[in-house]
Model the fold of this input.
Amino acid sequence: MKIAASLAVLATEWIAKLLRVGLIEPSFIPSEDLRELRDLCRLRKKRVGNLTAEKNRIPKYLESCNVKLGTVISGVFGVSGRNLLDRLIKQGYVDAQDVEESVKGSIKNKKQQVADSLFGTITPHQIELIRDCWEHIEYLEKSIASLEARIDEHLQPYRTEYELLQTIPGVSEATAAVLIAEIGVNMEQFPSAEHLSSWAGVAPGNHESAGKKKYKKCKGQSSHQNCLM
Done:
């Protein structure tokens, strides 16, 4: 342990000397507010992924009960779909009267089809599984809304850059927030576009041997995945 500690001290001193004479270029270290914004954006991405997984799970449970609601209503988690799911979870079934009171908008033209699609056999066990997913969905939606509000607060000092980024085709509000969180707004810290793309993880590293390119790999990808660039 003492030898390892001594070697660590020597390595630290050597790195400090190299930095002092300008032989080591400093690394990009985001400011505290950008680090916090990054944490929030990454957590939001994780929450959205979890939300999508839960929303995909409920239709599968319904299909296993021979409930074909998804074949009639494209957006099961729209207003009408949520009303029907809420009735189903609370009562354990949905009848024609429930359909009449639950469906809204253009779905009213499909009331009979909706009622027929809900004809199935749902056990108490399956209701509990659906209820568990539903409660998790509600929690995730509240969590995402809270995260988005906090992200918006952190973006206030960068409002000009945030709005400017959204003028790029394909860049949404969420993407603009992530760009600011991950690379900041001061591009002077990157000597070139190549340095920036490398930092962002979209500069492929080539695996080439004997003149043959085997694959291009970007940061965070496995060797069999293709880089976007």
User: Anything to note?
Assistant: The CA atoms of residues 44 and 145 lie 9 Å apart. Confidence is low (pLDDT under 50) at residues 223-229. The beta strands are 205-209, 212-217.
